[in-house]
Amino acid sequence: MERLRRTDIKYVKGVGPKRGELLEKELGIRTVADMVRHYPHSYVDRSKIYKIASFEGEMPSVQVRGRFISFTTQGDGSKSRLVGLFTDGSRAMEIVWFNRIRSIREKYLPGTEYVVFGKPTFFNNGWSMVHPEIDSAAKAESEKGMRGVYPLTEKLRNRSITSRTLYEIMKTVRQTLLPTVKDPLPRSLRQRLGLMELREALEAIHFPENHTQLQKARERLKFEELFYLQLNILRYCRNRDRKSSGYQFKKIGRFFNGFYNEFLPFPLTEAQKKVIREIRADLGSGRQMNRLLQGDVGSGKTLVALMCMLIALDNGSQACLMAPTEILASQHYETISKLVGAMGINVKLLTGSTPGKARERIHNQLEDGTLHILIGTHAVIEDNVKFRNLGFVVIDEQHRFGVAQRARLWGKNFMPPHVLVMTATPIPRTLAMTVYGDLDVSVIDELPPGRKPVHTSLRYDQNRLDVYKALGRQLKEGRQAYIVYPLIKENEKVDMRSLEVGYQLVKETFPSYRVAYVHGRMKPAEKDHQMMLFATHQADILVATTVIEVGVNVPNATTMIIENAERFGLSQLHQLRGRVGRGGDQSFCVLMTKTKIAKETRKRLEIMTSTTDGFLVAEADLKMRGPGDLEGTLQSGMAIELKIANLATDGQIVQLARDAARDTLDSDPELSAPELAGVRREMTLLFNRSVDWSQIS
Ligand code: ADP
Ligand code: MG
Predict the structure, then answer these.
(1) Which of 9, 43, 457, 624 is 20 to 30 A from residue 150's alpha carbon, by CA?
(2) Other beta carbons less than 10 A from residue 579's beta carbon
(3) Which residues, 6 or more positions from 234, have their beta carbon under 8 angstroms from its beta carbon?
(4) β-pair partners for 441
(5) Average pLDDT, stretch 296-316?
């Protein structure tokens, strides 16, 4: 690869400075190495020849073999075009050029057999192709098989740099520089995993002979990308673990035991016990913990977090719990102070709306150590909040809280506190291993006993009457309900209107019930007030936007109606659904859509009606939407742009790469063996933004 990296693309035969510049500007291809890593996005089968008479509907790009009958120039000046009449015996079509008319006219001879490759369009009662690729039949015959189709830009096409051009460039590279490519992966690793050699893989991905070979090549190239990524993540984790010794909490004392024996409101589920054991082992290890706790909505994460905080307290440390919203923070505060209030544990709430006096008192108690547990919003990481001795931090429902932000919490101590990140958003394994690869993972995979799965159904506008009837029955039994509307930036005005109209409609339909109303644009105090009305059952129905998406706990609410459900993502729908089914009663979730929805949309929504398992929902979501902005969560230097691997669909290769990376680091933490020289070099090139992780950890 070295020579390819050193060779500017413009020096490849047929490229030159002008095209070289365009390639760099449009596709970021500056060197031959960049070109080699610019993989085709698909392939056409060169041995397949279509008949013009069989064209129909929306056609893909196809090949036709035939002869030109005549050429005519139409129009004049800058608008002139050349039209060639082309027939394959079954029918004729027009081939159209808008530029280089003279040279083309001289180049192609009537009567000679050619193969043209392009996208047929139906126009003026006949088929035509604009600017197709054209080869003599003899040449096409010699290049049978699969031909790569390369990603391009409109601008390149206008300057007549086509997929064909890139193919020709690659053909030259294949003859000249490709043979010099050495494989950075050690032979032993390649052999063990049955991976194709790099040179062979690169050749095969640009010039595949068949599907099996192409498949092997893709696997090899995907593996390599993911292997470097995993090596980088694991290397970072090990570095951090080596460096950051943490508080060692050996004691299980009066807080934990007292709570367990006297105040535990219900027996722990096996899954809760298992997770507490895992965390306890971390806390006793003398190394700083960074753990992600996943558990579906309602699985009882709060209790686990509380019991772990009690271990910290038993060892003379303070603990802190941070939630994304005021509502959630105050709910946690209520729950926790109720649970441990009788034990002489000092719990306080700190949010943006905590008044100055109270705030001051909290600051003082934190510094003199008399405050044991601080619960709050982002307010708890403001610079003027100083703990005497913070040993354990819980971050709730904020799995997007990146490494750097977590690091800010550590900055508050001379010794980094243990960190537990909790989320109900199920994170598929592939993502857990990459985007969150720096965290250990615990899972609560069991709900408390007696929960009934939420009954979910898909309903259309014309069923609204029935839906409201069913809702009426629930209300009559004293249950509460959520009705959720989308509020999405691009459609803010329209959304606001439908939210308001919906609110009025609900009030009119249920005149004897009390309806609360919240959306994100309200003042926080008003929002909190409305939420409190619902939480304390002074309101029966809550009409809301997704502000209620996360964490809110009102076990008496048994109905969730989601309007315009097609506009929500699956994970979001799952979160919303998690607001009901929190008590022992059968709960219902109704997904409302307009009557006409696309097939894809219906399929997506049917995932919701077919399962209540958050992991299945998340996997399906990931497959349908791709990892999206989740990939961005790891921005800070740990991620690379994946050119060929796909976190959503390449789960197995991610696992393979992770295992291989772990084995490699186990036997050679510094990657210092001579056979790893290539890997080391690639890593430096990929990650040479040289992030100093010690700064962050
Ligand atoms: P989440 O994991 O979604 O944050 P919570 O911690 O809010 O879930 O718990 C959901 C509900 O389940 C709460 O009302 C809580 O009191 C209850 N709960 C938690 N653990 C248990 C258990 N072991 N048995 C019964 N109910 C439990
Ligand atoms: Mg929760």
Answers:
(1) 624
(2) 25
(3) 437, 658, 661, 662, 665
(4) 292
(5) 93
Residue recorded with tokens 């054991």: 277
* Closest ligand by atom to 582 CA: 1
Structure tokens at 48: 């397949």
User: Is the C-alpha dihedral spanning 635, 639, 645, 650 positive or negative?
Assistant: negative
pLDDT bracket for residue 637 (50, 70, 90): very low
Q: What is the model's pTM? A: 0.66
Which of 314, 296, 377 is closest to 582 using CA atoms?
296
Which sign, positive or negative, has the C-alpha torsion 255, 258, 261, 264? negative
Percent of the chain with pLDDT over 70: 91
Q: What are the E-state strand segments in 296-362?
A: 318-322, 347-350
Pocket test for ligand 1, best of 259, 263, 266 (most atoms within 8 A of CB): 266
pLDDT tens readout for residues 21-43: 999 999 999 999 999 999 999 89
pLDDT higher than threshold 70 for residue 19: yes
Contact 474, 588 (CB under 8 A): yes
Question: pLDDT for 542-562, tens place per residue?
Answer: 999 877 766 577 899 999 999
Q: Is 302 in the pocket of ligand 1 (CB under 6 A)?
A: yes
For 501-548, give the DSSP string.
Answer: HHHHHHHHH-TTS-EEEE-TTS-HHHHHHHHHHHHTTS-SEEEE-GGG
Q: Which of 270, 299, 327, 442 to probe ligand 1 with, by most ligand atoms within 8 A of CB?
A: 299
Pairing between strand 588-593 and 455-460? parallel
Judge whether 471 and 269 are in contact, CB under 8 Å: no
- C-alpha–C-alpha distance, residues 507 and 443, integer Å: 41
Tens-place pLDDT, residues 605-631:
999 999 988 878 887 877 776 655 444
Distance CA 21, CA 430 (A): 38
Confidence of residue 139 (pLDDT cuts 50, 70, 90): confident
- The pLDDT of residue 624 is 75
- Which residue's structure tokens are 């005549």? 70
Q: Is the CB of 441 under 6 A from ligand 1?
A: no
Measured in angstroms, how far is the CA atom of residue 443 from the centroid of ligand 1?
Answer: 14
Beta strands in 365-507 (DSSP E): 373-376, 390-396, 418-423, 440-444, 455-460, 480-484
Longest dimension (CA), the chain: 98
CA–centroid distance, 270 to ligand 1, in Å, is 13
Contact assessment for residue 425 and residue 571, using Cβ atoms and an 8 Å cutoff? yes
Averaged confidence pLDDT in the chain:
87
